[in-house]
Amino acid sequence: MSTEAETDPRKVDAIIERWGRDPSFVIEMMQDVQQELRHLPRAALEQLSAATSTDMARLYHIATFYKAFSLEPRGLFSVQVCTGTACHVRGAARSLDALSRELEVEPGETTEDLLFTLEGVRCLGCCSLAPVVAVGPDLHGDLDSSKVKRLVKKYRKRAAKMEADNA
Ligand code: FES
């Protein structure tokens, strides 16, 4: 798959310049690239490496050490289905299955339109709302499988609006 960084390295250049090409800010640069491109493409890491004289091995070490970084494209919205005990007892597996069918991806995968990355996660810390699904920063309690279609529709609409606002 061709990535934005491969087709438009200027975005990565702008980030590098913003941090003054200073190798001591390489993690901050990687955070900005991750946010801008929703992952760290190899081409972007090569740009960072060349501009800051930082080894690719070090960049890959950082990229794989911190959970916030991803070498694969991630969706605009991360969909985290809590599979902790309270949510499990209240049907989290059915919610996860329903989301998997609705989004046509397996847990750990990203939809082709790069809108959603689906994941099963441990307790989200709000067990009284079980079963819980987090979409980006939003928590949705009592999210049983019957509510999945509506939830996905809501975020597709939100993504369309964000795109329209950025046009
Ligand atoms: S078990 Fe799901 S929020 Fe705690």
Molecular structure report:
With about 170 residues, the protein is of the alpha+beta class. It has two domains: about 5-65; about 75-165, Glutaredoxin (3-Layer(aba) Sandwich), CATH 3.40.30. It contains eight helices and four strands. It has helices at about 5, 10-20, 25-35, 40-50, 55-65, 85-90, 90-105, 150-165, and strands at about 75-80, 115-120, 135, 140. It has a four-stranded mixed beta sheet, with helices on one face. A hairpin with a 2-residue loop joins strand 3 and strand 4 (about 140). The longest helix has 19 residues, at about 150-165. It starts with a helix and ends with a helix. Mean pLDDT is about 95; it is low at about 1-5. FE2/S2 (inorganic) cluster binds near residues 85, 86, 123, 125 and 132.
Quick synopsis:
This protein has 167 residues and is an alpha+beta fold. Helices cover 49% and strands 11% of the residues.
How would the global form be characterised?
elongated
CATH H-level name of the largest domain... which superfamily?
Answer: Glutaredoxin
Please count the beta strands (DSSP E, at least 2 residues each): 4
Question: Which H/E pattern describes the elements?
Answer: HHHHHEHHEEEH
Bound molecules: FE2/S2 (inorganic) cluster
Strand percentage, roughly? Answer: 5-15%
CATH topology annotation of the largest domain: Glutaredoxin
> Strand sequence of the main sheet, in spatial order?
2-1-3-4
